[in-house]
UniProtKB/TrEMBL annotation:
<dbReference type="InterPro" id="IPR007419">
    <property type="entry name" value="BFD-like_2Fe2S-bd_dom"/>
</dbReference>
<feature type="domain" description="BFD-like [2Fe-2S]-binding">
    <location>
        <begin position="195"/>
        <end position="248"/>
    </location>
</feature>
<protein>
    <recommendedName>
        <fullName>FAD/NAD(P)-binding oxidoreductase</fullName>
    </recommendedName>
</protein>
<dbReference type="InterPro" id="IPR052745">
    <property type="entry name" value="G3P_Oxidase/Oxidoreductase"/>
</dbReference>
<feature type="domain" description="FAD dependent oxidoreductase">
    <location>
        <begin position="8"/>
        <end position="122"/>
    </location>
</feature>
<dbReference type="InterPro" id="IPR006076">
    <property type="entry name" value="FAD-dep_OxRdtase"/>
</dbReference>
<dbReference type="InterPro" id="IPR041854">
    <property type="entry name" value="BFD-like_2Fe2S-bd_dom_sf"/>
</dbReference>
<dbReference type="Pfam" id="PF04324">
    <property type="entry name" value="Fer2_BFD"/>
</dbReference>
<dbReference type="Pfam" id="PF01266">
    <property type="entry name" value="DAO"/>
</dbReference>
Length: 285
């Protein structure tokens, strides 16, 4: 339903914590509703579950901005915990451990401030560590495809070269499949045309590129999801996860690890997963 709005819609803050419920379009064409905010004490800091009452409030408040939102098409719901700084400002400073930089308590406008925060950390804090830290970034692409970007400042020594490829291949648009694209679901045939995630239109080639470009072993399917959106669609990975498991298992063989695809976990081992309300709850709101 991302076409319903073209900009992030803010509400006037109320007596509840936060800036009100946002309605935000995403680059993938979806809508995000929320967040709400509830103060927690230290005993509840591990509480990351959603609940029916708060979901109902989010939907009610979002519909004040955008009426007729269809929550029966909701993909998922989630919650998190944000630490609030006691000093009333961002905490950006070197810790007692050399090279470990605290960037914490980043409240609004943290997203808007992120480029300036990154510049502060790289060009001032890291450069002044004692002893100084060598700044480097491992190239992830073949030498002939590397594009060198040098960050510089008139008052500081030149920054090291960072390598990256700004031209990412655009994901296949699933809506165009019936207009000439002959992709097939599965792992047989051309990786460029093998569709792994039907909901998001992600191909085998895109997933392999994301896995190989990580520069380190990928050990769970969520790592692929975060990089490619495979598993973020309506079925939430029920169809594509077994195929992604096979690709992850195959990639680990390059590191000398032979792990059966069925044993590849969804999430990083040991990661606590919050309980989430089912779509049945949202469909009734």
């Amino acid at each position: 339903q991302g076409s319903k709005v073209s900009r992030v819609i803010f509400q006037t803050p109320t007596d509840r914590w936060g800036k009100g419920i946002l309605v935000s379009p995403t680059v993938a064409g979806n809508l995000m509703l929320g967040p709400s905010a509830i103060p927690l004490d230290s005993k509840e800091k591990e509480q990351r579950d959603t609940d029916t009452e708060e979901l109902a409030y989010v939907v009610w408040a979002a519909r004040r901005s955008v009426p007729h939102l269809d929550t029966s098409k909701a993909l998922t719901s989630f919650a998190g915990v944000r630490a609030r700084p006691s000093r009333g400002d961002f905490i950006i400073e070197e810790s007692k451990i050399n090279g470990f930089i605290n960037v914490a308590g980043i409240e609004s406008p943290g997203l808007t401030s992120s480029p300036a925060i990154a510049d502060l950390v790289v060009n001032e804090i890291l450069r002044n560590c004692n002893p100084p830290l060598p700044l480097s970034h491992k190239p992830l692409l073949p030498k002939e495809k590397e594009i060198q970007i040098q960050l510089s400042s008139s008052s500081l020594p030149p920054s090291p070269f960072f390598y990256f490829n700004p031209r990412r291949k655009h994901p296949v648009d699933y809506d165009k499949f019936d207009k000439g694209f002959d992709g097939r679901f599965g792992l047989t045939g051309d990786p460029e045309r093998n569709i792994i995630c039907r909901c998001e239109g992600i191909t085998e080639s895109e997933i392999n590129h994301a896995i190989d470009g990580a520069g380190f072993p990928i050990r769970c399917t969520d790592s692929v999801k975060w990089r490619t959106r495979a598993g973020m669609g309506f079925c939430q990975g029920r169809r594509c996860r077994p195929l992604v498991q096979e690709l992850v298992s195959k990639s680990l063989q390059k590191y000398g690890e032979n792990i059966d695809a069925k044993l590849i976990p969804k999430r990083v081992p040991g990661m606590r997963v919050p309980e989430r309300e089912s779509r049945d709850v949202l469909s009734k709101l």
